User: What shape does this take?
Amino acid sequence: MNQRTWKRELNYSLFIAPALLFYVLFSVYPFLSMFYYSVTDYTVRKITNLSFVGLDNYKHLFGSDLLRTGLKNSILYAVLMTVFQTSLGLVLAVFLDRKLATRNLLRSVFFMPAVFSPLIVGFLWGYLMSTSDYGLINQGLEALGLGKINFLGDKDIALYSIVFTQLWQWTGWAMVIFLANLQSIPKDLYEAADIDGASGWKQFWRVTLPLMQPSVNVVAVTAMIGGLKVFDIILALTDGGPGNATQTIMTAYIKTSFNEGFYNRGAAFGVVFFGIVMAITLIMMRYLSKWGEKIR
Amino acid sequence: MTTRPYSAKRRLRRYPWILEAILILLAAVVFVPVYYLIVTTFKSPEEAALHPLSLPAGLDFGNYAAAWEAMVYPRVLANTAIVTIASVIGIVVFSAMAAYGLARRSHTLHRAIFYLFLAGLMVPFQMGLVSLYKLINALGLMDSLLAVIFVNIGSGCTIAIFLFHSFIQSSVPLELEESAFMDGCSVPKTFWLIAFPLLKPVIATVAIVSTLNVWNDFMNPLLFLQSREHNVILLEVFRNIGQFSVDWTSLFPMLMLGVAPLMAFYLFMQKYMIKGVAAGALKG
Amino acid sequence: MRKASITLFVVLMAISMALAGCSGNNGSNLPNGGEGSEKETAEKVKVRLAYWNKEDSVKTLLALIAKKLPDIEVEYQFIDNKQYDNIIATQLAAGSGPDIVSVSPSASTKYAKLGYLQDISALADRYNDAGKNVYSADGKLYAIPGISWFEGIFYNVDIFDQYGLKPPSTFAEELALHKALKDKGIKPQAMGAKSWEPMMKSSMGYVMNEFLAKPENKDFDVQFGQGAKKLADSWVPAVEQWSALIQDGYLNEEMLGIDYDQALDEFATGKAAMWESGPWAMEAIKKKNPNIKVNMFPFYGSQPGPGWLIGGPGVGFAANSKSAHPEAVMKVLDLISTPEGQQAFWNDNKGGSSYLKGVEFEMPAEYEGVKETFKAGNVYAPWNNWGDNAQSLIEEYGKRLQEVLGGSSSVGDALKGTDEKRAELSDLGS
Assistant: This one.
């Protein structure tokens, strides 16, 4: 290697360095320390002179109802979000790609909820969905002669209500990404399909959807990962309740680590969870890329 | 054979009134919570409790004035803007650089580093909070905006690198760069002058994603900013809620003041984003 | 539009290059950390006080400090109750944290054991035992007890008058009262059971009357905290009797979808006749409905008597042992521990009482109905004696009661679940 090639290689490495440094220092290192804490007796009462306790903390996870509920809810939530955010976003995008008079206004309205912080969404929907005499949705239902629905207080539907608020918030976001993708589809493909006599519906399946694969990929994967990690909106809307009915992995982690003080068991939670998210994401990415290959 | 395509075509071209009507109705429903938020900001507590959905009796900006003052809005807005702008610039620049370096080299080491970044997408990084806090403290960054900015860059660069990387690989042609090298351009020069300008569309996407995340992030400022002069908007909102708050009419204007800049930002970026991303940000 | 965006990005790029220190021929330099923390430049000493209530709840006190201690600037940091313990524990563990730490009794014991708090026994003589005991460990005082808090049952005087109803004097009468109101088509009691707190308190109100007040159970709470006694062996009859409120539908599943705020709305606007809460809600109630007439009655048991209120010493202010300004912190705590300081503190917490010796405040008219209860000294919060893990335990207990209200669990299981949580939490070590 001559000196110039060397300099080039060094330059490339220097390019990677800043992001890597920030990432390793502020994300990787704190996270890795969890692996260490998960095999120690680190709790709110024992902060220094930690000793090694082997897999004790992991053993504790198996009997834990909280973990089981959390896992079930996180996966259910993530799957629902992935499926509906993708499909509803796609439908909205296809419709709003057409030349409608109010198109731009509609796009803005559908996207608008995405700018709100979970905190605000929690306030708003907590109020709207309340069963009190001031719960606006239930007021409406009663005016229509229907019974009240206990959106956030019924343990069997609370999680679905949360999913609903999040679809309200994030479907518009998915729509924007799909819209972007739609505009990259050459119009002559549709004209060709027109000439072949394909109906609008068939065109969607045969022409649009396959070409939407990149954006579907991005939306589905981020919805899945984000869904598995969900916590702030849960804290804002139900705080994991009623009882522990809407705890997710992350809220269970927060409860175990910070409310109760078991940093070590919380860390074990985190390690197991990381493995699960990793596995699900990899499976999903593989499946999506296979789909991509098949339809190309 | 001859008539069917025409009818299909005509059906497609007919103006979709029904569709539009349905969409407008849906948009109205989607807008209700936002409407509720907005009208409440103009009401008195009594009015809000009795007629939550009605239009306000008058356009009284008194609630906003009070919120403005209570939050020390100019200061928190400046802090939030500093944190957001610096974090977003950091994320965009460092991620674009790293993604470029990673996309243009293919040693095992580079691939390993790329996967390390990818793994970060899946890590719930909030889980490392205890160590992160100790680290910030040890670095002497406690109670400074820099702490929040650094942590934002550290956690925000993963998705950005993912997006930049796939874009560079799919749509930034190598030929241009090679001829630049031939002319004796250094790597950084080639990147800044040739590759970076081509990244515009994906920069828009990354900037919007990061801005939303950073602006609405509440955990990091809460942990790392302690004195009031360093507060960001959400902290100030929270500080005015208290354990037992019910005064929606003074809370909602704060919430509105908190998201207004973000809405403006989106309206400004919206067109560009949809167009820009269309240029191929999603190839990959 | 397009042009504007491009301009924006050119500017952005220029700034970013400046920030990263990128020039044509080298990669990048990192902005160097470590320059961030600004030390105070003025001669004023800054003392940070963190608390989980709005600044409004101590505003008169802060004003007094600003006036009396001109060389000290108290910086008030509000941290929401849900996050407060996490954040403070993390900060203290890292050797930082606010100079003056607001603590609950259990947190003060916890932090004192870990050496986070300064011994402030010098101020101990000024307070009476009821206040300082809960903030002491091994005979040393670690926090000064604030204005006391209490909760009872508010009722709307106008509604009661309109239907000729009287506040009850036993739990049976209370049930009859609920029935009478319900028959008239009025929601008897508002409750924001979406939070785990109100049912926890309401049920304990009954337990205090029926079980804890008995002399033989004087030490029950301490023993429970240590694991020597179990709730499932002792509280079942009382909590089951209390749960008549659930069986008769006065507390119902619908309330699991109602927040504190919405419950307050219902009570303030006259949609519900009663509401379990405390003095801090008064200002908000009056704001929503300036004409409302409110009174309060305590929790009752099966026998007539003065009843009980749930409550105890309010927030404790503790001194961080790692504070850079210990003298300034002591000056502030000293000022709060004077009649003048207590008066200022009380001003925003009217209804509570002071633990400073020789200081007494007049009770506002809204609490006329619980005068006898106060006279009898019947104000108590069982968990203040449950030890370090009390906060997690009452949360568990409250969440289990939510399951009872939701119909998926029984009182016995709820109490057993709380016992199990207590055992689990003992793994934390002490």
